[in-house]
Amino acid sequence: MSAPGGCGAVVELLPEVALGIVGGTERADVLAHLDGCSSCRETTAGFAATVDALPVLLGDAEPPPGFEARTLERMRAERDRVPRRSIVRRVLAVAALVAAVMILSIAAVRIIDASRDGDAGAVGGMTLAPMVSHGTHPAGHAVLRSGAERYLWLDVDYGSGSATYRLETVDARHRVTVAGAVKVTGGRGAWGGEIAGPEPAMVRLVGADGQVFCEASFS
Amino acid sequence: VWVVSDDALLDGLATGDPDAAAAFVERFERRVFGVAIRIVNDARLAEDVAQETFLRAWQRAEAFDPRRGTVVSWLLTIARNLAIDAVRLRRVVIVDPEELVARRDPANERGPADLAMLSSETERLRVAISHLPAEQARALVLAAFFGRTAQEIADSESIPLGTAKTRVRTAMIRLRAALVDDSEGSE
User: For the segment B14-59, what is each residue's pLDDT rounded down to a tens digit?
Assistant: First the structure.
């Protein structure tokens, strides 16, 4: 797939994409173009390598006394927390599965009802996609149930901040639909429900400043 | 004196070895904290960012791909991203790009591989930035180290959006060219 009119309209945005400062439909347009353009992917990778080299320029600074000990203690605490976290995650996974089953059940009943009324209906597949932030950092998962009635479930696990993000879906023609709001507390959040609008090619969480917090692509 | 490579230390960190973790933090703490403090400009917040950077490195060490860059650039990119997340909602950024990226003596407590990298790539970048017009350097710093979008740069600098985009794009193209030209020339 290539952008209308070739690479010209997209190429100028590649440095900004590599810097991670492009959001909204512009970013969706570029990502869609990159999917099918190896030349632009290579150019973007070059700019990304440049961006990755920049932080070294900031130089060293002496951390506060005790920094190393506090950091290692935090790592130890995190290591000790992993088993409990696994249990929590297992519970969340079961809850997610239950939610997904309920969603599917509701959808199936509605489809069956619709079929009885003479309308056509089909049970679409479920697609699982990783949520990523800043292009590559894992940030959770998104599950899309495609079909006449679409359902979306997602969980977010990234960073340690708290904020409410706008949940947007973007279809293959880059049309954006606001599906709801996702509250993230301490880096974690979840959302599930029926979504309106065209079949999404991707979903994303957008902050109050218009920046994309994280996103998942179903294509 | 035999020096453990950065990659080997990261491998040790991935296994959960406490000694490797201590050595890893000791080796990189000044660089990670340097990135954090210069972006967030708050000692307590910078420590949070730096600690979180090491946690992420430990959690994702197995995913590190040496073909895509060095341990240092990978680690400092994590720090940069976390620091930008921490300051993204700040309205005002007081930054002097020249002060932010100039000077820094790279020769302190660095291993041979580091020094080789610093003497080539980093110095080329430093020189390239020093040759940028001041307004381009400032736009680049606002974007790269503070996560400012072109629109936000346009607003804060009181310039048209197109001008802000051009400044960021031109600066990036020049830096990229400096790295590519030099690496091609050295081959």
Answer: 888 888 899 999 999 999 999 999 999 899 999 999 999 999 999 8
Q: Residue A3 pLDDT more than 50? A: no
Burial class (CB in 10 A: 0-12, 13-18, 19+), B171: buried
Q: How far apart are CA A16 and CA B135, in angstroms?
A: 17
Report the largest interatomic distance among the alpha carbons of chain A, rounded to a whole angstrom.
73
Q: Is the per-residue pLDDT at B108 higher than 50?
A: no
What is the number of H-type helices and E-type strands within chain A? Answer: 5, 8
Q: How far is B104 from chain A (nearest CA, A)?
A: 5
- Using a CB–CB cutoff of 8 Å, tell me whether B33 touches chain A: yes
CA B44, B45, B46, B47 torsion-angle sign:
positive
Q: Are A188 and A14 in contact (CB under 8 A)?
A: no
Name the pTM for this structure: 0.62
Nearest Cβ partner of B125 from A20, A47, A54?
A54
Within 8 A of A211 by CB-CB distance, chain B residues are 88, 147, 149
Q: Of B34, B149, B169, which has the smallest distance from its Cβ to A23's Cβ?
A: B149
Q: How far is A5 from chain B (nearest CA, A)?
A: 20
